[in-house]
Backbone:
């Protein structure tokens, strides 16, 4: 297995810093409003399994917000920025309250992949609380809060997940680093660029992406 690079290249560190500031600003706003925010500290917890257990314990206690919620189940890992407590029970739910996912994003508009990410986190939340929440949210870089219905995205999410798992199971599948918009932020960028240079890939022509190179 490859060692994950410590640092991203290009603009990624700056964007990561701005993203972290946006997340911290939102955290400070919640604290200023008097909410009880539990922080799941993955390093202090000593592993993903323990951080996931800390997240589930905070949900079972009914803490107002859970920051850096960690999910680790059946080989699947995820980190949601925030879980917000909704003080009403769900049909089939475990408690008299439940949680909805909130993710902070620097972007000014919601991108389709945000919704897949939120649906993935919401699936973990549903597993823990016994029933799916109605909504999921993105806190955008301009402060706007966009809300989406989980059930509007969940069928598409499940189909993408099923196709992904089927592809992984294909014995002869050779993954290839197809350029996408996220490459500019990715810690693997240098590794992939080496492969593109080696293969004389079309992506080396002025930032061309998969959609364009397959168009
Ligand atoms: S193709 Fe792009 S997003 Fe995928 S691993 Fe490589 S640099 Fe990252």
Residues:
């Amino acid at each position: 297995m490859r060692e994950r690079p410590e640092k991203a290249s290009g603009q990624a560190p700056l964007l990561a810093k701005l993203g972290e500031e946006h997340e911290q600003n939102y955290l400070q706003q919640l604290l200023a409003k008097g909410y009880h925010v539990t922080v799941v500290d993955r390093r202090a917890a000593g592993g993903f399994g323990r951080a996931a257990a800390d997240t589930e314990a905070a949900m079972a206690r009914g803490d107002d917000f859970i920051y850096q919620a960690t999910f680790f189940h059946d080989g699947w890992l995820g980190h949601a920025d925030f879980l917000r407590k909704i003080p009403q029970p769900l049909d089939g739910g475990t408690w008299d309250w439940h949680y909805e996912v909130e993710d902070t994003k620097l972007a000014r508009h919601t991108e389709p992949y945000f919704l897949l990410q939120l649906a993935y986190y919401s699936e973990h939340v549903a597993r823990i609380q016994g029933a799916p929440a109605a909504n999921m949210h993105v806190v955008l870089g301009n402060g706007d809060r966009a809300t989406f219905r989980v059930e509007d995205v969940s069928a598409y999410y499940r189909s993408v997940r099923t196709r992904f798992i089927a592809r992984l199971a294909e014995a002869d599948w050779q993954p290839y680093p197809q350029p996408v918009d996220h490459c500019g932020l990715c810690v693997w960028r240098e590794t992939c660029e080496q492969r593109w240079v080696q293969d004389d890939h079309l992506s080396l022509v002025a930032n061309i992406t998969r959609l364009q190179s397959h168009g």
The CA atoms of residues 5 and 187 lie 6 Å apart. Residues 177, 179-180, 182-183, 186, 188-189, 192 surround iron/sulfur cluster (CB under 6 Å).
